[in-house]
Write a structure and sequence with these properties.
alpha/beta; Rossmann fold; six-stranded mixed β-sheet; four-stranded antiparallel β-sheet; binds adenosine-5'-triphosphate
C-alpha cells in the first residue's frame, strides 16, 4: 500500500499541492490524471522522495522520510517526465546506472531481460542519444523495470512510478507499455502512472486520481471518476464519456468547439 496523508508542497511560497490524501493499493494500476500544471509530477516527485513536503507518505507502511536512499531504491523505481542523459552512454549503460544498488546477482542478465521486455534488446550497444524519442522512452522504462525487476520483496510490493510513460509512443507501443504495467501489477507490484490519454486510462486503470489546481478532486474507479461533468469541469472543455454497447467499457470523446 502507498498512502499519502495531507501532503502539501509549497515552492517559492506558492502552494503547488494542497492536502493530498489517498491510498493506492499494490497489485493494481493507479493513474493520476489532470490538466497541465495541476500538480501530477510534483505529487509523483514527493511520493518518490525527491522533494520535500508537509504531511506523511508511507510506502508499505514505512514513512519514506525515514528511509535511506538505498532503501527507497530497492523498493521503488521512478520514470520522470523528462529524462536526459548527458554523456554518450550506450543503451545498456543507461540501464546499468539504475542498478548501482541492485542486489541481483547478474546485472547483465537483468539488463537483457529488461530490454527484451520493451522490445529493444537489439539496441543494447547503440548510443542512447542517437535513438528516437519513443525508443529513448522505452529504454527509460527498461531502466525502471530492471531496478525493481521482481515485483515482490519478502512478500511486500515493489513499486513503479511512471510520469507519462506513453507520451512519445505510437499506438501499438502504448498498448505494449500498458500491458507491461498490467503484468507488473498482476504479479503483485504497485503501479502509479501519470496519464494524459483518458481512453488508455479508462481501459487499464483500476483506480484514477484526478488532480486540479493542486487538489485531488476525486479518487476512485474509472467509472466513478470519469463522467462528463467531472472531466469537462476539470479540463475546462466539453468532454463526452460514452460506453460501448457490448461490454459497458468507457471511452471518451472531446467535443470539437468549432462546429
Ligand atoms: N520548481 C518549481 N518552481 C516553481 N514552480 C513549480 C516548480 N515545480 C512545479 N511548479 C509549478 O507547479 C505546478 C504543477 O506543476 P507539475 O509539473 O506538477 O504539473 P503537472 O500536472 O505534472 O503538469 P503537466 O501535465 O504539464 O506535466 C505548475 O504550475 C508548475 O509551474
Ligand atoms: Mg507533469
Amino acid at each position: 500500500m502507498l498512502q499519502t496523508h495531507d501532503v502539501c508542497v509549497e515552492i517559492n511560497k506558492k502552494k503547488i499541492l494542497k492536502n493530498i490524501k489517498f491510498d493506492v493499493p499494490a497489485g493494481k494500476i493507479t493513474a493520476l490524471i489532470g490538466p497541465n500544471g495541476s500538480g501530477k509530477s510534483t505529487l509523483m516527485r514527493a511520493i518518490s522522495g525527491e522533494i520535500s513536503y508537509q504531511g506523511k507518505i508511507f510506502i508499505n507502511e514505512r514513512d519514506i522520510n525515514f528511509m535511506k536512499a538505498w532503501e527507497l531504491a530497492a523498493i521503488r523505481a521512478v520514470l520522470p517526465q523528462n529524462s536526459s542523459v548527458a554523456f554518450p552512454f550506450t543503451v545498456a549503460e543507461v540501464i546499468h546506472i539504475g542498478l548501482r544498488n541492485s542486489t541481483e546477482s547478474s546485472t547483465d542478465h537483468l539488463i537483457n531481460d529488461a530490454l527484451d521486455c520493451v522490445g529493444l534488446l537489439s539496441l543494447a550497444k547503440r548510443e542512447y542519444s542517437q535513438l528516437s524519442g519513443g525508443e529513448q522512452q522505452r529504454v527509460q522504462l527498461a531502466r525502471v523495470l530492471a531496478q525493481v525487476w521482481s515485483p515482490l520483496i519478502d512478500g511486500s510490493a515493489k513499486w513503479i512510478f511512471l510520469d507519462e510513460p506513453v507520451s512519445s509512443l505510437d499506438i501499438s507501443y502504448q498498448l505494449e507499455v500498458m500491458n507491461i504495467m498490467q503484468n507488473y501489477a498482476d504479479r503483485g507490484g504497485g503501479v502509479l502512472t501519470i496519464m494524459h490519454d483518458l481512453n488508455l486510462t479508462a481501459m487499464y486503470a483500476d483506480n484514477v486520481g484526478l488532480l486540479h489546481n493542486g487538489k485531488l478532486l476525486c479518487f476512485g474507479t474509472p467509472s466513478q471518476v470519469m463522467n462528463d461533468k467531472i472531466l469537462s469541469e476539470a479540463y475546462s472543455c466539453e468532454i463526452k464519456v460514452n460506453k460501448t454497447p457490448k461490454n459497458d467499457k468507457i471511452f471518451i470523446l472531446p467535443q470539437a468547439t468549432n462546429t
